[in-house]
Design goal:
This protein is an alpha+beta fold. It has a single domain, classed as TusA-like domain (Translation Initiation Factor IF3). Helices cover 28% and strands 35% of the residues. It has a four-stranded mixed β-sheet, with helices on one face. Belongs to the sulfur carrier protein TusA family.
Length: 75
């Protein structure tokens, strides 16, 4: 998978990871992929819902230590 932009949102509390993600994805072209790193546990439910409501595709997510990683394709 080709990553077009990586967003480091570690240490930010809700709703800042989503706010920063929205700003970052607006800089991408349709079809490009944003990789997000966050430590906010609420992101597990926030990112799938946000991606769906915005017409984006959550490609995958994984947890590595305390860091949650998400890959979202801009819709």
């Amino acid at each position: 998978m080709m990553i077009n932009k990586v967003l480091d949102a570690k240490g930010l509390a809700c709703p800042m990871p989503i706010v920063k993600t929205k700003m970052a994805i607006n800089e991408l072209e349709v079809g490009q992929v944003l990789e997000i790193h966050t430590t906010d546990k609420g992101a597990k439910s926030d990112f799938p819902a946000w991606a769906k409501s915005g017409g984006h595709e959550l490609l995958k997510h994984e947890e590595e230590s305390d860091v949650l990683k998400f890959w979202i394709r801009k819709g």
